[in-house]
Each structure stands twice: as C-alpha cells, then as structure tokens.
Amino acid sequence: EAPDVPARVFGALVRAKVTPQVISQGATRLSLTFLVDNAEIAPTVRALHAEFFPTGERRKAPERRKAATRA
Fold this sequence. Notes:
about 70 residues
C-alpha cells in the first residue's frame, strides 16, 4: 500500500484552499472518498492532478490485449 496517498491528497487540497465536506476511508489507505462543494470541483481536480501527475511526467498507457479470435 501507499501510506502517503491520503497525506498527499489532503496536502494538495489544503494548498488549493479546498475544504472537503465529508471524508470516508475504506479498508485500505487507497480507498478514499471525499465530497467538496460544486464550486470547488475544478480546483480540486486541478490540485490532485498537479500532485499526482506533475507537468513533464508522462506515463505510458498500458497496452491493451487483443481479444483472442476464434476461427
């Protein structure tokens, strides 16, 4: 598991001055849900994107397996 994920998520939200209204964590640290006001959706997405996908860092998309064809 990645124990720093919740800290990174909420650190990014604090820096963006976004206040979650409800926070819920599931059985793992990666199962994290939170609600924000409608007006804060765009800043939330931008903050999380900047935190987890910094500019200049490109990840190669995984290759999709082709479905086996039957003759």
